[in-house]
Write a structure and sequence with these properties.
With 139 residues, this protein is of the alpha/beta class. The chain has helices at 12-24, 41-55, 71-78, 93-102, 108-121, 126-138; strands spanning 3-9, 30-35, 61-65, 85-89.
């Protein structure tokens, strides 16, 4: 099983994991780390490195962060020097759900790709989806 490490600004990481578990149930090998105002980024780096070591049971660790270029990204992206660690920015619920559902099935590299696709495919405009649908039915 690929380990999942969620690292975000504020409590977003804890809350999105909690919300996802409402949908898919309690999960193992998932950790949420936060960066709060005034927290030392070097302390976060130490925590991330520790969690990677704890969570890597041989299939790697996928780190999901909220924002490209933010401190969680900067800290986590340094960790990809190891071949068994990947980091993806742009965390959203479809990405996390795909990661949780697919980590027993996919390799780390496959899971990274699947999560990135799920994140973008999950961004949909209701107007474009439904208006286009209804206009076609009315023709």
């Amino acid at each position: 099983m690929v380990g999942l490490l969620i690292v975000t600004h504020g409590s977003f990481s804890r809350e999105i994991v909690s919300s996802a578990e409402l949908i898919v149930g309690k999960q193992k090998s998932v950790e949420a780390l936060t960066l709060t105002a005034g927290e030392d980024v070097n302390e976060l780096r130490t925590k991330v490195e520790q969690k990677i070591q704890e969570m890597n049971l041989g299939e790697g660790v996928l780190i999901l962060v909220d924002l490209l270029g933010g401190s969680p990204w900067n800290v986590a992206s340094v960790c990809i020097r190891a071949e068994d660690v990947e980091c993806v920015a742009g965390l959203n619920m479809p990405m996390l759900l795909e990661a949780l559902e697919g980590r027993n099935t996919y390799s780390l590299q496959e899971l990274k790709t699947v999560c990135m696709s799920a994140a973008t495919e999950g961004v949909v405009s209701a107007r474009e989806l439904f208006v286009g649908c209804c206009e076609e039915e009315g023709d």
